[in-house]
Amino acid sequence: FPGPLIFLSGVGVQGCHGAPCFNSFLQFELKATGTAHFFNFLLNTTDYRILLKDEDHDRMYVGSKDYVLSLDLHDINREPLIIHWAASPQRIEECVLSGKDGNGECGNFVRLIQPWNRTHLYVCGTGAYNPMCTYVNRGRRAQDYIFYLEPERLESGKGKCPYDPKLDTASALINEELYAGVYIDFMGTDAAIFRTLGKQTAMRTDQYNSRWLNDPSFIHAELIPDSAERNDDKLYFFFRERSAEAAQSPAVYARIGRICLNDDGGHCCLVNKWSTFLKARLVCSVPGEDGIETHFDELQDVFVQQTQDVRNPVIYAVFTSSGSVFRGSAVCVYSMADIRMVFNGPFAHKEGPNYQWMPFSGKMPYPRPGTCPGGTFTPSMKSTKDYPDEVINFMRSHPLMYQAVYPLQRRPLVVRTGAPYRLTTVAVDQVDAADGRYEVLFLGTDRGTVQKVIVLPKDDQEMEELMLEEVEVFKVGMTHSPVLLTPQQLYVASAVGVTHLSLHRCQAYGAACADCCLARDPYCAWDGQACSRYTASSKRWGPRTPRVLSWGFGGRCNTTLGVMDGTAPWSLEGTGTWGGEASLKILDQELSSSRRSRRQDVRHGNPIRQCRGFNSNGECAEPDPWALLTVPRSCSQGPPREGLSHDPGG
């Protein structure tokens, strides 16, 4: 067991000078709340990674050293299905003789689990520095409880899974074809984006060409369609690498790259190599008062938040600083519109080794390099092998875009500087509260905690971060596996195990209306008796649209919000902006009633307005219009250090 699960809750917020705001703190063992469950089957294994969620079977699939696990999404300890898949003793001996560590490297570290069809998974492991893949039968229905390896279908994992378990891979299995960003050699020097399996030609990036890939670390792969035309579909890879264009090389830059799914390579040049591969820099930086930007360049994790438009998801990314002097982390948010604009912009060009990088200004070959064959702009060209040689030659020497992709509002959504930890993972949930719709960020750290954060508009120019809680889940950090959301559950993995957490612990905020209101947790509201889960009316908010991406700046609001909680009438007076001041009016007859069932104010956390009519123990009382509720506030201390408890009384 990883040790006691500690819960730290922040209540109330004011300006905190760049640090996440807390007010008072609660500390206790999270396990006692019944809102967290640790996978408690004692296996001789390590390095757990959540690799696949299967909502059709209500299972999630976890890889670790020598094991493949199938866990129930609703209760990870209810009848887990476990496959022991170790490398052969002979292979382990050969691995040790080659100089590798017998425990930390010479095992079969499962790194890839992808859905093959309705009944089978495709799984790959490092195989004690000899990668191997095979198929796992999971049955057609969850209640079949079928889960076994098919050893007769064992095949080489080269180009699918790394040799070294310390090297990460990013993969996607699409139409029975596996796309993977991976190192393919024993020494870990040849990195490539591969396509294997399936009926199309096996493909890879240009070998030992540092303009294409330069010592990359692959983070994530995501299929994002460009249009209704399937031939335009592109697979995006997120990675970091040593930069060739940095003024002070070597420097590490975050990248987003893309390829067309129907790329067949060139006819004479780039044979069996991608002829549509492009990449651009992802920038996440804080502008300084002197005009110099502080950059976070080490991409750590990516979460793709789907919207109603499958072509325009929202991209959340965690970054850390790369220098040893400045230590910090940040979360930046990107739109696909900005990403596509960069890929449709100028290419980076350099005349020679002593020249500066410039935007390419020569004659652009047709079709434009990076265009998919048979798509919207090239309906007559059915294959990249039909592309003229000048297009293929241009692609080989110009894979980099000149412009970089900047985040929304050109600044991070969350920043951590000077903290004794770094952010490593991110997952995002969308929550409807009484006063609006909020994106709740769950941020994993390298000290084993998960932070629950929302970001609110402070004024027309700035956002204000509010940390709702920090939960210590493990004694070691979450440096690899992503946090994975399902309805009302958050799954977290580390080297020592897997835990699932509830997204909310409303009862922990206290037994008074004011405490519940000051928590400002969009999951929670005062119901007249206790702080409990808030469920929004389905009629109040329409479907989410990409306009939410304004993050509270400049989005016009001129509509009546109607019934806010199903019982109490509210209305929004006049026209304003999400980032400005809008007058929220509670109708007079509602103020005089002490029977309103749900009280919540995420935006302002105002207990005087919300809790009038309730005394401290939750019972109804006659409202006193002149009564003042005094709440102790202390935000200058910043987040608590591990093991410290702050007195709620201030």
From TrEMBL:
Biological process (GO), any one: positive regulation of cell migration
SUPFAM superfamilies for the chain: Plexin repeat, Sema domain
Residue ranges occupied by any Sema domain in the UniProt entry: 22-503
GO function terms (MF aspect): chemorepellent activity; semaphorin receptor binding
Top-level lineage group: Eukaryota
Disordered as annotated region, ranges: 631-650
An example Gene Ontology CC term for this record: plasma membrane
Keywords annotated in UniProt: Disulfide bond, Glycoprotein
PANTHER family in UniProt: SEMAPHORIN, SEMAPHORIN-3F
Protein name according to UniProt: Semaphorin 3F
